[in-house]
Amino acid sequence: MQDKISLGRKIKSAVLNILMYLSAGTIALILLGMIGYILYRGLPHISLDFLTQKPSLVRETVGILPNILNTLYIILITLVIVLPIGVGAAIYLNEYAKNKRIVRIIELATETLSGIPSIIYGLVGMLIFVQFCSLGTSLLAGSLTLVIMTLPTIIRTTQESLKTVPNGYREGSLALGAGKWYMIRTVVLPSAIDGIVTGCILSIGRIVGESAALLFTAGMANEVYGLLDAVKSGNAGSTLTVALYMYAKERGEFEIAFGVAAILLLLTFIINLSSKLAAKKLKAKGAK
Amino acid sequence: MSKIKKTARIIEKSTNIIFTFCGFLAVAFVILITGFLCVSGIPAIREIGICDFLFGTDWSPTSASSSYGILPFILTSVYGTFGAILIGVPLGLMCAIFIAKSANEKIAKTVRSCVDLLSGIPSVVYGLVGMIIIVPMVREVFNLSDGANLFSAIIVLTIMILPSVISVSETAIRSVPKEYEEASLALGATKTETIFKVIVPAAKSGILTAVVLGIGRSVGEAMAVMMVSGNVANMPGLFKSVRFLTTAVASEMSYSSGLQRKALFSIALVLFVFILIINLVLNLIVKRDKE
Predict the structure, then answer these.
(1) pLDDT of residue A2
(2) Sequence-separated (6 or more) residues with CB below 8 Å from residue A98
(3) CB distance A84–B22 less than 8 Å?
(4) Of 3.30.230.10, 1.10.3720.10, 3.30.1330.90, 2.40.50.140, which CATH number belongs to B71-290?
(5) Rounded to an integer, what distance in angstroms lies between the CA atom of residue A20 and that of residue A8?
(6) Contacting residues of B for A16, CB less than 8 Å apart
(7) Residue B60 φ/ψ, nearest 5 degrees
(8) Is B121–A91 a contact, with Cβ atoms under 8 angstroms apart?
């Protein structure tokens, strides 16, 4: 049977097969090589001092505590603002909106938002929040910029999980005399919680990896702030990614840059794992 | 009783308004972004002249006879994107086919996790690796005085668009009906022939979506290419230091003023228009696919 396939066809198939294995192998190799190299150069620099000091020329310390804290603050502020808006928008799209055309317009808007490159967000964030709202280059302005950026993610994931809530739940609740808001609060939202969590994790991933949007909005300072100072206008601070960029490009301190890169890699790994777990949970629920 | 009803009605009404407001906020943001970009980008274009701005080949805002031509940036972005697509799409497509069809489940899973992880790595990390590994390598291999050029940028961009190309085309390939494959196999085609002559053509529009997504991603990338492209406003050449649309905005923003600063906003406006066009194409493809 096999002999009936001509030699030309066999060779063609073999070449394509080899190319396929080669591509997959190349990609895996690129990733593993990159991770290996970054950890190899970065891990030796990570120490307790590196994580808990702030950089000071006088005391000759290097450390990334301010950058870690700033990243956390920006994640926190962004999520606190974007969650109600995004979940609200998803509820509107899924529960309230009756006009198909309006839904289409809003979905088009969120798609547009998710396609805009981060450097434009950075620029517009600078124009709107830093200058127009006169917040100054600050963590708050950076967070507000990221709110616009992460909004599509939150809306999409929440909407997806709202769609998995069976209509019978809603009808049952309404039939028992509950108002629409009461129905949403007690029946729909609790069932949609894992979609919201997935959205949060994805947003955190995006925020941790973001640099271009923060460069001109959150600034480059390496100061340690308390949580209350972080939301004040004018308090600039760089996140881990911005710090990496500054150390590598502007100051040429590659050792510190690799240390930060290794930490970012570990964070990416953790975020990746948790988003996979959350997605699995969401899927399992959708199948039920 | 009527009192409860009244408060209930007020609550219903106000929640309705709040959710509607949230829903339209996304639209408002798009309008806000477009508005701010137009207001701050158009004056400089008007001052310089749209032809001189878009087709001028010389960008030297600080020299005595300052000129503001952004053709070098536009061409660099186009060439860079084209290069990344040229290498990235075949590579990504092959990998997607491998994951979807060929490999055994365990290997496919490993490769897929690799791809997921690649997509999560921050762009500055790509930039750093590019700066330390790719730039010196390009310098050595091609015997150049400086390895920070368009070629290095294309390599970094290629790696960065791979994850989206792979995951979107994998989904497209998986969604091809099983009957197509079975019919082709039953007619005596080999497995490889089936994949490349039946499944891939059937998944065409999904793969096209992947390509357009890749284009969008590489046109919009700023930080990584800034670190490896040399950042000089040359007309693009494969081994010349170049500046992209994105990096042109980012690199002079911190110290520019006056017309130069306004021109930077105009560059951002041009970039925004590019992205809108790409989004439009994407929407058209998806729409046609649905029909």
Answers:
(1) 52
(2) none
(3) yes
(4) 1.10.3720.10
(5) 18
(6) 192, 195-196
(7) -145, 75
(8) no
Which one-letter DSSP state was computed for residue A41? H
Chain CA centroid to CA B219, Å: 5
Q: Angle, nearest 10°, between helix axes A118-125 and A139-163? A: 130
The domain in which residue A240 lies consists of 49-287
Q: Give me the phi and psi of B59, to 5 degrees please.
A: -115, 100
Mean pLDDT, residues B240-244 taken together: 87
What does the block give as tokens for B131? 């700066």
Choose the mutation target among B5, B6, B20, B22 for the interface with A, i.e. most A CBs under 10 Å: B22
A1 has a pLDDT exceeding 60:
no
Residue matched to tokens 């490769």? B111
Q: Which amino acid is at B81?
A: T
Those of residues 179-208 in A touching chain B at CB distance below 8 A are 179-181, 184, 205, 208
Closest CB from A20, A21, A211 relative to B124: A211
Q: Do B22 and A92 touch (CB under 8 A)?
A: yes
Mean pLDDT (chain B, rounded): 87
CB pairs under 8 A between A and B: 238
